[in-house]
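Write out the 3D structure for:
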Amino acid sequence: MINRRELISYSLAGAGLSIAGVPMAALAQQTKGTINVMVQPEPSGLMLGIVQNGPTQLVSGYIYEGLLRYDDKLEPHGLLATAWSRSDDGLTYTFKLKSGVKWHDGKPFSADDVVFSVDKFLRKTHARLRASLEPLESVRAIDANTVEFKLKYPFGPFISLFDTGSMPMIPKHIYENTDYATNPANAKPIGTGPFKYKEWVRGSYIQLVANELYHTKGEPMVENLYFHIIPDAASRAAAFESGKVDVVPGGAVEFFDVARLAKLPGAAVTTKGWEFYSPHSWLVLNNRKAPFDNPKFRQAVMYAMDREAMVKVAWQGFAKTAAGPFNQHVKFASDDVTKYPRDLNKAKALLKEAGYKGETVKLLPLPYGESWQRLAEMIRQNLIQAGIKVETTGTDVAGWNQRTAEWDFDMAIIYVYQYPDPALGVARTYTSHTIAKGSPFNNIEGYVNPKVDALFDAGAKALTDADRAKAYAEVQKILTEEVPVAWLHEINFPTLYRTKIKNPISSGVGLNDSLSRASIA
């Protein structure tokens, strides 16, 4: 018997000043509906099936679409799909697709595009999704508007894979039998989304225009989206302050500028729209080398840090001290774990038990701006106060990527998206099979515990939430006792926007898909 759950579809411009490089014709259109958004840094590409970094998702989330979108409670709602069902054994998922959907070039979207996207294109190009598709045995088109996914074994978070960033639909008629990486459509992407690609002036702006063929009536509610590229942090703050930009995504200006900018006339700030991503930061500790190979030393690092002070100073209140390995928005997050309030006496005692002899350890900051540098300096000072000799070694973004991916560090500051389910964004940090050079976003600390591996595997495969919760509760207890990494904060990235922009955030992925449902007062 199949249990069916229906999903509900989510069902002028201001007189802002122009930004250098935007054509005068676009300025005339602002009164008809234009939203100016900041994107930082400039995307490396817009083909979302190939490039999945944050800036690309911000822009291309309006060009491409997934089968589902997710609200701030992480519940799925229909987008290109209208309903789904799961068999009682958890092995078969059936999706009904929305009829009448067209690609931006006018060709019809169908179940064949879904099969091609998932089974051919994304398996090859999307590393994060490819790992999550390991349980998938087959995907087939039953008819033009019905797709069936069969799993090898139950996989609890499967229904969380269908967002645009994780599983964007790719036009089969454009990419089949081509070299995906060199297809000319990568430069002028074609999707089913509410906006179409219009123009990209490198170093200046990316323009998207409303899709007149869009499948949802009344959307999008504006005619143009401009994503402005402003490399300097101070200039980005000034662009919002002067009225040149309507929307500033979280992290695009320094945290210490947010409160001042939010107080400007006609300005507002929100931390909504990050629930699906669940940003989590920590201090990676290289478990392969002394003194970090001793759990007592790692526990001492936790006790040494004044993470509450970091919330106030580095993050200006836009963060929460992390309880452990799971962000609170991640399913099955538990508070029944070892706690690490700041306690210098306990830290010093643990250092003595660990046999620490005062050797210098190096700290690699995250080179994402002044706020992150302030965080690094506070960590350094806290550890020195506990008796740990710390030397900071700076580098640029490319250098940070290389050093962390090649395990060339003692301690490194990092943050990752953990996504709605621990099997999607948490397990990769702690399971031994994810230890591999080449990416900074897996188990780069080199932590190995067979029991932890088994619990994460059990949690992913269990059919009931009760069984999943039991496995994940136990794994959190083990991790917070062994401290493979030193958890820092759950970051609540603040989004600045003009109050003339109504409903700027309407989903758990925030600005990556919400502006098509926003209007201008």
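The mean pLDDT is 93.
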